[in-house]
Amino acid sequence: MIIRKRLAAGACALLAALAAGIAPANAADEPSKNSPKVELVLDVSGSMRARDVDGQSRMAAAQQAFNEVIDAVPDDVRLGIRTLGANYPGDDKELGCKDSKQLYPVGPVNRTEAKAAVATLRPTGWTPIGYALRGADADLDTGGGTRRIVLITDGEDSCGQPDPCDVARELAAKGTHLTVDTLGLTQDDKTREQLSCIAEATGGTYTTVRHTKELSGRVKQLVRRAADPVETPKATQGAAECAKAPELGAGVYTDRATFGQHRWYRVKVTPGQELRTSVSVGADRAVDPDYGVLVRAVGEGGQELVRGTDAGSGRTDVMSAGLRYPIAEGKKGEDERARTVCLEVSHSFSAPASVKRDPGLPVELAVDLVDAPDDPSDLAAFGLGRGWVLLAVLVVTGLIAGLLWGWLSRWRVSVWRTN
């Protein structure tokens, strides 16, 4: 009898220990209150019936992409889904412009339930983007963790009130660290302008997508970015000349430059440091097919130190260029004061006369200061120091290629004569 009681007590103790061990493990698998939060806001309006995405409807493409995104959500991200235009099919504008509901609550993701909810969606009604943004902001709450909205739509707001750009500025002004990224399934100018405005007001990004793979890949990237947030760009305003330019430290900055405008910035670089700079100019409106971007580093005496350029043609959303400029550490007793390096940023985008000039195109400037290499001339082979090294490499390469081509041509002629 005593043995049975001891066995029973031991079994109870074992079950209690197992329960205690299991509970914390399950709790550890769930995102905490400080985990990043993301809400996907999907346009389910009637225009999503259009069949122009990889041979299927925009709605089917979005559903397929959402399923892939749901499968790839990081464990530490709380995800939600909100729709707009999914429920009211009528013509009453007042009702249609309030048609936005949360499809899946923000929290730990049950992949089966989330996919089942997405599968029920059918293109239906209006496009109340501004109203949906306010709803998504409420869904994300203001607790700990980063807050991100990813808006996917195939057109501009069809309601007018509240204006989506005004709503985005309103949400940004609340200071709750909310970022709104926008993805457009069409390329018309009005949609591009409105979605760019929403994104820029909150420090987010705008992307045009035309294929299912692009859509799923971009949304996955944004969800992962919420889990590992990047530095929020700081607003700055470049000057028309270096002497009046703002002084920048290491960081990411945003500005705007109109067509044909040159913007100047200053950076202090001490001996022993290397300046690394990249600049991106976004085409947030219709532009002509040929374009380029230039960033130059200029010394205090006005001499050019190094430049980075890129150019292209055809359709683009962004163009980038970068440069590196090291200052070798001086010998003991030499001047160790910081040197002023002026950065000039310009672009050659142009546009038809009907396209608005203001505000200018969005510019993002990244500045970093790292330890310089022991011998800055080591960078010359990459076009970052003395150009004659790269020229010599190109000449030798061309000579070798010419010799090989000549030998092959003679060999082919001799074979042809023999046959």
UniProtKB/TrEMBL annotation:
Pfam entry (one): VWA_2
Transmembrane domains' residue ranges: 387-408
Residues of the VWFA domain: 37-226
Domain of life: Bacteria
Region forming the signal peptide: 1-27
Sorted UniProt keywords: Membrane, Signal, Transmembrane, Transmembrane helix
Protein name: Ca-activated chloride channel family protein
Source organism phylogeny: Bacteria, Bacillati, Actinomycetota, Actinomycetes, Kitasatosporales
